[in-house]
């Protein structure tokens, strides 16, 4: 029985009232009740309260049960009367009573009262649902006749019972042509079309609506796409009485969707070609640039005539600027493609700032400028973020300050703006007393390929991408950047970065320097490199460290050499003819035994796009050096891996 059903008992016999109350209490029946002893009192209670069921005796003090029926309340009524009143019961049922009970002197009729009430309430609810469904169908037929969507009503056997005018216009079929047929009349028989039978089965099983797209055919055989919603109509017994389908013609939308897919594929192909071009361009430029930079560095370190010093410095400066331009173009392309992402690693914040600052001291002093820094003391020692991109932003702004300042000073300031939990917001300022920026150019200074004037480009160089890249990196940090400047007086670039505070502030710092006692002279290194200029450069560089070098021109030869000879380390180019460095590294790791299997492999490649380093590590390489390589960095990596290799080999010998 319905939980907390509310019942009105109309009974003028006090003994019957008491018997009813006692039975409810003893049986712990879960419903509330009120008692009225007359038609008048019942009328008042029905006006003031809502009831689920009325139980009324036939004879009442001021009338009878028919007076209750005549009150017009549409509440299920259970009629009670004594034995021998069968004619009255039949009359009551005809007048609208829902059920009846025959009173007996022992009042056993009370025992079936709960079941009778439950049955009456369920029947009433079912009748209300049926009325609601019929009303819904009536309203739907009115709406369906006016809507531009096709409406189909299927009977319980999934045969078309009714369609609206919009359906006839959409499909070309008349109502008489479709009546009694199944939805198959519209179905296009192809392998790739949505399986309608599975949808109908799901609607029937779940007894809920389902929306899907399907390709149909008109009477003339013309294809059209429809967005269809199937909705079941449930009858009194809980079974599906009808299914209503509402179809919208989405052929135009599907056409646009297909055009967008084609356009997206073309855009992706264009992006792929562009990335491939940039990767090739980067490789082709960096390869000869590696030779220029490397041989220049060797000449600077070796003996040369004093008058050659300025020429060598000019070559180094030009090489550095060319590399900056290449990196700017690659970074800008990654930003445009939405592929620049920030790393989340722990780093020592003050060490990072100190390192950036120290890298500018010599250049600033050479120009006769003053340089200073201020780092707020309360900033935590260890933070979490992307130190490489932070370095890129600050270095770019410091380089600009140095480039455009002829006299005066440059200042780097870092302050804490706010802190919430582990999140910290830092503000950076780079001040200079340089040429400044005209007021009318301040709004454009962070735009791609923009500089203050064409004369700036001619005099100072650059791509006009640096500040655009800086702004995008700052945005990735959920920060903002702005500039305050007065022409002829100087500029201050202000930006903020959102970082995290590392949980452990007391970890020991790992000094990223090789043990100064490590001597790499005499070690044997296999170099896989196909470009003759780079072969010569790496040979000269390693020879200057007294390293024994053997050079091969592709990965296939490198794989063969490792099987034939013992080497302490391999320097492996990535892009080589016949077999590249990635494939050769995989072969060494997968097909050789120890100790050759675990020989350290350092990639040396002119590739500089995102993912290049990850590809090298995935192939089994231990580390990565980008061309043009820095000689100190290369020495550091060789020394570290040689030291580790000696320990590994010693451990292998002990185990054997």
Automatic annotation (TrEMBL):
Catalysed reactions, as listed in the record: ATP + protein L-histidine = ADP + protein N-phospho-L-histidine
Enzyme Commission number(s): 2.7.13.3
UniProt keyword annotation of Disulfide bond present: no
Tree of life domain: Bacteria
Limits of the Response regulatory domain: 6-118, 524-642
PTM annotation (4-aspartylphosphate): residues: 57, 573
Chain ranges of the PAC domain: 210-262
Domain Histidine kinase, first and last residues per copy: 280-501
CDD domains in UniProt: HATPase_EvgS-ArcB-TorS-like, HisKA, PAS, REC, REC_hyHK_CKI1_RcsC-like
The UniProt record lists the keyword Phosphoprotein: yes
InterPro entries: CheY-like_superfamily, HATPase_C_sf, HATPase_dom, His_kinase_dom, HisK_dim/P_dom, HisK_dim/P_sf, PAC, PAS
Pfam families cross-referenced by the UniProt entry: HATPase_c (PF02518), HisKA (PF00512), PAS_9 (PF13426), Response_reg (PF00072)
Keywords, ordered alphabetically: Phosphoprotein, Two-component regulatory system
Location of the PAS domain: 136-207
Alphabetical list of PROSITE patterns matching this protein: HIS_KIN (PS50109), PAC (PS50113), PAS (PS50112), RESPONSE_REGULATORY (PS50110)
EC primary class: transferase
Name of the protein this chain belongs to: histidine kinase
Organism: Agaribacillus aureus
């Amino acid at each position: 029985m319905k939980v907390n059903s509310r019942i009105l008992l109309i009974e003028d016999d006090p003994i019957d009232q008491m018997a009813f109350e006692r039975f409810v209490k003893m049986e712990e029946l879960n419903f509330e009740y009120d008692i009225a002893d007359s038609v008048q009192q019942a009328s008042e209670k029905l006006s003031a309260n809502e009831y689920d069921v009325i139980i009324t005796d036939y004879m009442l003090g001021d009338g009878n049960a028919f007076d209750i029926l005549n009150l017009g309340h549409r509440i299920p009524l259970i009629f009670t009367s004594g034995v021998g009143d069968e004619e009255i019961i039949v009359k009551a049922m005809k007048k609208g009573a829902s059920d009846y009970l025959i009173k007996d002197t022992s009042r056993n009729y009370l025992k079936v009262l709960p079941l009778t009430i439950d049955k009456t309430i369920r029947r009433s609810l079912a009748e209300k649902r049926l009325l609601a469904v019929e009303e819904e169908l009536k309203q739907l037929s009115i709406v369906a006749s006016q809507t531009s969507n096709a409406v189909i009503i299927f009977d319980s056997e999934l045969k078309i019972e009714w369609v609206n005018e919009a359906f006839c216009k959409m499909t070309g079929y008349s109502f008489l042509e479709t009546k009694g047929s199944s939805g198959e009349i519209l179905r296009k028989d192809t392998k790739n079309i949505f399986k309608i039978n599975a949808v109908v089965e799901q609607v029937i099983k779940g007894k809920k609506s389902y929306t899907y797209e399907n390709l149909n055919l008109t009477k003339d055989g013309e294809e059209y796409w429809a967005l269809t919603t199937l909705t079941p109509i449930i009858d009194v017994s809980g079974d599906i009485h009808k299914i209503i389908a509402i179809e919208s013609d989405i052929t135009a939308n599907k056409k646009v969707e297909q055009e967008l897919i084609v356009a997206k594929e073309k855009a992706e192909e264009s992006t792929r070609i562009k990335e491939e071009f940039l990767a090739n361009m980067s490789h082709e430029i960096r390869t000869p640039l590696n030779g220029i930079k490397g041989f220049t560095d060797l000449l600077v370190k070796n003996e040369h005539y004093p008058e050659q010093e300025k020429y060598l410095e000019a070559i180094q400066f030009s090489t550095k600027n060319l590399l900056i331009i290449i990196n700017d173009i690659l970074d800008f392309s990654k930003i445009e493609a939405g592929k620049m992402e920030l790393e989340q690693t722990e780093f020592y914040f003050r060490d990072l700032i100190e390192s950036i600052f120290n890298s500018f001291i010599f250049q600033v002093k050479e120009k006769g400028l003053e340089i200073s820094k201020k780092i707020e003391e309360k900033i935590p020692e260890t933070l979490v973020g992307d130190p490489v991109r932070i370095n890129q932003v600050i270095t770019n702004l410091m380089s600009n300050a140095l480039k455009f300042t002829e006299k005066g000073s440059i200042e780097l300031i870092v302050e804490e703006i706010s802190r919430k939990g582990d999140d910290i917001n830092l503000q950076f300022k780079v001040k200079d007393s340089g040429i400044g920026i005209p007021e009318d150019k301040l709004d454009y200074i962070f735009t791609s390929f923009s500089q203050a004037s064409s004369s700036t480009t001619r005099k100072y160089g650059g791509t006009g991408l640096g500040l655009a890249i800086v702004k995008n990196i700052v945005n990735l940090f959920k920060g903002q950047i702005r500039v305050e400047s007065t022409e002829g007086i100087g500029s201050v670039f202000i930006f903020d970065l959102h970082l995290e505070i590392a949980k452990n502030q007391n970890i020991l710092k790992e000094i990223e320097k090789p043990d100064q006692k490590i001597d790499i002279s005499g070690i044997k290194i296999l170099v896989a490199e196909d470009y003759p200029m780079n072969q010569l450069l790496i040979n000269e560089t390693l020879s200057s460290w007294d390293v024994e070098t053997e050079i091969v021109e592709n990965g296939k030869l490198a794989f063969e050499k490792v099987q034939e000879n013992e080497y302490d380390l391999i320097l492996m180019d990535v892009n080589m003819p016949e077999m590249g460095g990635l494939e050769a590294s995989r072969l060494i790791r997968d097909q050789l035994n120890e100790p050759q299997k675990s020989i350290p492999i350092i990639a040396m490649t002119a590739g500089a796009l995102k993912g290049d380093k990850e590809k090298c590590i995935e192939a089994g390489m231990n580390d990565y050096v980008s061309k043009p390589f820095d000689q100190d960095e290369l020495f550091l990596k060789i020394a570290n891996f040689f030291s580790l290799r000696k320990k590994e080999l010693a451990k292998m010998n002990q185990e054997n």
